[in-house]
Amino acid sequence: MNRLAFGRLVNTQTVALVGVLLLNWLLFPGFFKIEWQDGRLFGSLIDVLNRGAPVAILAIGMTAVIATKGVDLSVGAVMAMAGAVAATLVVAGYPTALAIVAALAVGLLCGLWNGILVALLDIQPIIATLVLMVAGRGIAQLITEGSIVTFSDPALIFIGTGSLFGFPMPVVIAFTLLVLVTLAVRKTAIGLFIEAVGVNRSAATLAGIRSRLLLIVVYALSGLCAAIAGLIVTADIHGADANNAGLWLELDAILAAVIGGTSLLGGRFSIAMSVVGALIIQAMNTGILVSGFPPEFNLVVKAGMITLILVIQSPFSSQFMNWLGRRNRGAAR
Amino acid sequence: MNRSLRPLMATVIIFAIAYAAAVMQFPGLLSTRVLGNFLTDNAFLGITAVGMTFVILSGGIDLSVGAVIGFTGVLVAVLISSLGLHPLVAFAIALVVAALFGAAMGFAIHYLQVPAFIVTLAGMFLARGGASVITQDSVPINHAFYSYLSSLYFRLPGGGRLSFVGLLMVAVFIVGAIVAHRTRFGSYVYALGGNTTSASLMGVPVARTTIQIYMLSSVLAGLAGIVFSLYTSAGYPLAAVGVELDAIGAVVIGGTLLTGGYGFVFGTFVGVMLLGLVQTYIIFDGTLSSWWTKIVIGFLLFLFIVLQRLVFAASSRGDRAPQKA
Amino acid sequence: MEQTAFRMEARGVSKIFGNHTALDAVEFGLLPGEVHALLGENGAGKSTLIKILTGAYQPDGGKILVDGEEVVLNSPLHAQSFGIGAVYQEVNLLPNRSVAENLFLGHQPTRFGLVDRRRMDREARVLLQRYGLGIDPSSELGTHSVAVQQIVAIARAVQLSGKVLILDEPTASLDRDEVQRLFEVVAGLKRDGLAIVFITHFLDQVFALADRVTILRNGKLIDTRRLDELTRTELVRKMLGKDIAFSGSTSLKTERPVTDVLIDYEGYGKKRSVHPFSLTIHKGEVIGVAGLLGSGRTEMARIMFGIDPADQGTATLNGRPVAIKTAVDAIKHGFGFCPEDRKADGIFGELSVRENIVIALQGKLGWFRALNRDEQLDLAGQFGEAMDIRAASLDMPVKLLSGGNQQKVILARWLATDPAFLILDEPTRGIDVGAHAEIVRTINRLRDDGMALVVISSELDEVVAYSSRIVVMRDREMVAELRGEDISPGVIVQAIATHGEKAA
Questions:
Q1: Which sequence ranges are marked TM in the entry (chain B) (predicted)?
Q2: Residues in Cβ contact with A74 at an 8 Å cutoff, skipping those fewer than 6 apart
Q3: What is the distance in angstroms between the Cα of B202 and the nearest Cα belonging to chain A?
């Protein structure tokens, strides 16, 4: 059993993550150095975890959505909305707990909205979630009235910059969420049903799975994850920036899920691997930063990464691999 | 009445009502001066949206256009300011680069059989990153020909100015409409959006048409990038962030079905004008803030998606293969 | 032998997929000015032959001749250049474009490089009039009825090809008047000397329209005959095959004791799908459903299982009225359903054999009472063994199994839910002999254990062997209920073939 668990950990994604980390180490020898200071860990590696947490959290929800053959383009805008709600409420003097609950509720509502458009109105996911992607940021700006709402509420700030057991809060939250959601989908039948709906929705319905309800729940989860990520980002900068919070992060989340091995055509998924995917993206970001390249260089690397994945997954390359396999076998004879 | 005309009619009616209401509140909106600025200010969006119309009509999507605008602006600025090329030469180079870029995306979409959304996402990263690799800063363009072009205008009766870029946009719309509605290429675009299998059985060259569609979209985004640089007299790698969403919004609000096959280039024009009207109204009002634009666009998007769902629901049900016996 | 000038000919054409022979040295000759019906049940090789004639497939053996010359057809477009056009059941045109554009796409008349719409519409109007269609050529194709779309498709095919027209189930979704209209068009084309292949499941239409008929079964040519030399019964017998023993069939001679009624359908039906039917099903009884494709047998199954809920009549389960509006309702009441199209509606290709087996039970248990891995393995092992599923591992993706084993997996899936009532739609189609026998054994076993089953099958020998009663469907209507001595292939064939009036 132990060997099985270990075997599952050694795969393309983890090897890629280790590879990127090693590359960072080559560029920046102090990369693996971790220090203990003021009761918490410091170091580039911890930084990768910390900075990667928001995308990792988005990827948790996105993975479930993609596994049902869908996509959620609205998560970046939902992040901005949730952050705006929380910041505005604490500034107005409401208790932190209420602000957090309100922010999470906003995320949940947005997710339900997307889910209803997709499951009940049968609108294509990419189109249905586009509505909130466009309008959501405007709503966030409406809430903050266009300015960056800064706050000094220590409890809210703690979510972004505090630490627990020596780890930064975002890391703790992301890890907890990863464990909770993984348990929630794998210890119940939900994970199986998500895969079944993604692989063959018609057969799933015939086998007695309530696919519409399942889709709504999955989009709601994605909205909730986006709200949590939005809270972290807002708390981290002590303010809600409706213009930039979560901008383009939906694309990073999709990329993380795809790197994590979830096909855009739905089906098998692994939330843990998507989180590893998010860390790969972040490790590359950090590597590019520490090695002195302009941060925008990142985008070029990401483009290269998507292209690579697409080519590997394309029908041509599998034909090519078959051909190669046959040739090798032929040569061995 | 042709079914696909209904969303277009809705757009036109909404625009007419919105414009009338705005004029009633601010009579100043009804002047050639405002209309002229309307065209100038939205020129780059309009040109981009024409390309996006073709892409969406074919059932695809192009997320890279905003980044291509930014990239072309930077490329043109660097070619002119750093290498001292004549603007016209720089334009030609930029458009060729954009065309190759679009062709590569179309090639990947057709031959790798990946969703357009993912391929053009990679394209967006590449173009935006590429622009930033060229330069991080805004590169000013100081060239006599540039100043000439950007200050070129025709005087309209009533004191308005129809600028060169505004005119260019109108020209692109006219040519775009002719290509979409009166050429075989245009009919192939609609055919792909209707049903790819049928299209290929009917002899539509699917691969070639797909590549041409994304080439067209990138070239027009490149042209929009040039227009944008004329407008700002500079090239900036982070210019026009998010314009792809405005362009998609204008196309859908203009009555084109997001799943492809139905729509009109003229509708996109009305869509762009409607977006422009929202922005102008907000400026005129003074108390409303710019974010209302996004909320209104989002709302209109939702309205049109649901409207189209209702108008085309009957046909999509009919399209499904009858249950096998 | 007379030397006839075939317009198109297939000589000894074969096609092999993997280790399955879809077509086995089939001969097919098409005369100018004839309507030639091509008949056979699913899997007989009709569609493979059509795809070879239209260039979509290349034959593995034999040759194709057009006007006596051997040709190689690379693609449907290439076949078009030899004058061969085809029209399919699901109209392969563009519903979003105008009628005129559908007629001329790719060949639109142009002027100065631009499409000359006015000329295109004018030419379209002339063309449509030849087919008796007075519709506006600039109207959107999708707004017209399927019948009109079919005629437009025919017009395009004839316009662009002009020698051979292949009609692949063009009438499947048309009503009586529309069929009549289509027939007039086809008759006109026949008079013009076109060679027409006509594929349908409706025998009435074959006799009404065709001059000759070719019958395929299991990839082999059974016969090519003039229709005026053939009776309806002979035709059905040739289609269903195996030289049915008309006497001494192996039906359940022993009348089974009448047990409790499980479910009682009264005037149950759905508009535009199946005429209301009444049927009482007892525990421990197999109701066989016979009928050709398109007779409404699958529709009946879908209504019973709540996929297309009934809009009239009542269902009474164990003496209590039940409303079955969704598959979830049906499963809750102990129903199970193996769909006809395994791949599209049955299996989850990427998921494991284990998951494919437990999924319906898990669906019944709900989201939160999850079967853990060990329980899943137990269940999958138990029911997999009961069905004799041959899989290297229960964790391998089900798509790697053979069709027969996939079918057993779906059956195992339902058995795991401990159903009271199973509906099987063509459970033995397209699977190997071993799996076939296993499924028939299972049906017998389940019946003897007291389960009620409805089994749809085109294999008459098989239905006769395990059914307690047989209902016959024709034209979306239940036309006969056979019991006792009447359960024999001969009586069934008679019931299927009889058209309205008494059989001749």
A1: 7-26, 38-57, 64-83, 89-109, 116-135, 162-180, 213-231, 264-284, 291-312
A2: A110, A114, A129, A130, A131, A132, A133, A136, A223, A226, A250
A3: 25
- Asked whether residue C108 is domain-assigned, the answer is no
CATH code (residue C204): 3.40.50.300
Decide if C33 is inside a domain.
Answer: yes
CA A240 to chain centre: 20
Which run of H or of E encompasses C314?
strand C312-317
Helix (H, G, I), strand (E, B) or coil at A277: helix
Phi/psi at C384 (nearest 5 deg)?
A: -65, -40
Contacts of A310 in chain B (CB under 8 A): 108, 112, 114, 118-119, 122
Per-residue pLDDT of chain C (504 residues; tens, 9 = 90+): 444 688 999 999 999 887 678 888 999 999 999 999 998 876 678 888 988 998 888 999 899 999 888 999 988 888 888 999 888 877 788 988 999 999 998 888 888 888 888 899 999 999 998 888 888 998 888 888 888 888 899 999 888 888 899 998 887 667 777 888 889 889 999 998 899 999 887 777 888 889 999 998 888 888 898 988 888 888 888 877 654 444 334 445 455 556 788 899 999 988 878 889 999 999 889 999 988 777 888 889 999 998 888 888 889 898 899 999 989 999 999 999 999 888 888 899 889 999 999 999 998 888 888 888 889 999 999 888 888 888 888 888 888 887 888 889 999 999 999 999 999 998 887 777 778 888 888 898 898 888 999 999 877 778 888 888 999 988 888 888 888 888 888 888 888 877 554 433
Q: Hey, is the C-beta of A121 within 8 angstroms of any chain B C-beta? A: yes
- Measured between beta carbons, which residues in chain A are less than 8 angstroms from residue C305? 206
Domains contained in chain C, number: 3
- May I ask the CATH architecture of the domain A40-321? Orthogonal Bundle (1.10)
- Give the domain extent around C439: 263-334+420-499
> Domain locations in chain A?
40-321
Interface of B with C in 168-187 (CB under 8 A): 178, 182-184, 186-187
Query: How many residues can be counted in chain B?
Result: 325
Structure tokens at C80: 């078009």
**Statement to judge: residues C36 and C182 lie in one domain:** yes
**Does residue C151 belong to any structural domain of this protein?**
yes
In this complex, is the C-beta atom of A145 within 8 Å of any C-beta atom belonging to chain B?
Answer: yes
Q: CA–CA separation, C96 vs B58, rounded Å? A: 12
Domain range B5-19+29-310, CATH architecture: Orthogonal Bundle (1.10)
Residues C74 and C181 placed together within one structural domain of the fold: yes
Looking at the structure, do residues C233 and C150 belong to the same domain, yes or no?
Answer: yes
Q: Where are the domains of chain B?
A: 5-19+29-310
